[in-house]
Amino acid sequence: MASQDWFDKDFYEVLGVSKDVSDAELKKAYRKLARKYHPDSNPGDDAAEARFKEISEAHSVLSDHEQRKEYDAIRAMGSGARFTAPGGGGAAGGFEDVFGTMFGGPGGRTYQQGGQYDDLLGGLFGGGRFGQPTGGFRGFGGPSKGRDVTASTTLDFITATKGQQITLQASDGKPITVKIPAGVADGQKIRLRGKGQPSPDGGESGDLVLTVSVRKHPVFERDGLNLRVTVPITFAEAALGATIQVPTLGGDPVKLRVTPGTPSGRVLRVKGRGVETSKGTGDLLAEVQVAVPSHLSKDAEEKLRDFIAELPDENPRDGLIAKAKG
């Protein structure tokens, strides 16, 4: 950084903070502005790029306690001071006068011995802290993170529900091992830290953002952490009651009791047989549906008519019709 910049630029104003800002407040202000003006968020916007460089430059100085102390000392001399090259004619307000003011020596010559004068010049013009590149975007703001990479994969229902370690192939042909957490849902994104593109300046690598698609299961459906299954039962089982077997995902069937008079659509719950994750375990919800036979023998049809004749003379739709009429 050229020494004149230290007079002309108000880094506190650039970051929108006061001169007594704390380290935490400084970091918070910088991050907010850096996210807003980062070139990745503003592709092709030269003004945003310039603003980002200005923000990064200000943070680079103010976040370093030693640089901030020397910057404050130089700024304290006032923005009216100007540096002139040696031999530029006139000492008043020139290079030697500035350093003489800072360190008490006439024209700064007292500090040429012992390397102090040279060290200070090096710091201002590239040989020391002030002039060193700090990494990051074009040399400002610290090492930058590599770009994130997006990918997608399709999982079968059981893998998504139970969780499993799978292997994907990156764009460069290298295999990537991915641990699929139990209970991942269709359309969910999984972020794999450090599996994206490498940083251009020695920072951390970007991430791989993996979008998951889940194939439908022929029997089960997800309902949050619960699993739903439709179980057909006969009319006799619904009317008289029965003990039936209900399938579970990847396990042995369980037995459920159907009480007499169970209507079609009633849900029977099996505790703890749903999706098991680190956040909790769901249940298995079995919805019973009364299966109507599509073909009856003559004898069965006659017996069914005799059965109907024995039933009370009532219409189960009367209440529905009355509600519809208001």
Description:
This protein is an alpha+beta fold and 326 residues long. The protein is built from eleven helices and 13 strands. The strands form five sheets. It has a four-stranded mixed β-sheet. Strands 1-5-4 form a three-stranded mixed β-sheet. A two-stranded antiparallel ribbon has the order 2-3. Helix 3 runs antiparallel to helix 4.
Write the layout of secondary structure elements.
Blueprint: H1 3-8, H2 11-15, H3 23-37, H4 46-62, H5 65-76, H6 95-103, H7 116-125, E1 149-155, H8 157-162, E2 164-169, E3 175-180, E4 189-192, E5 208-214, E6 220-223, E7 226-234, H9 235-240, E8 242-248, E9 251-258, E10 267-270, E11 276-277, E12 280-281, E13 284-291, H10 298-309, H11 318-325
Helix pairs in contact: 3-4
Report the order of strands and helices.
HHHHHHHEHEEEEEEHEEEEEEHH
- Largest pleated sheet: 4 strands, mixed
Which percent range describes the beta-strand content? Answer: 15-25%
Fraction of residues in helices? 25-40%
Gyration radius from CA atoms, angstroms: 38 Å
pLDDT below 50 for ≥5 consecutive residues: which ranges? 79-139
Overall number of strands: 13
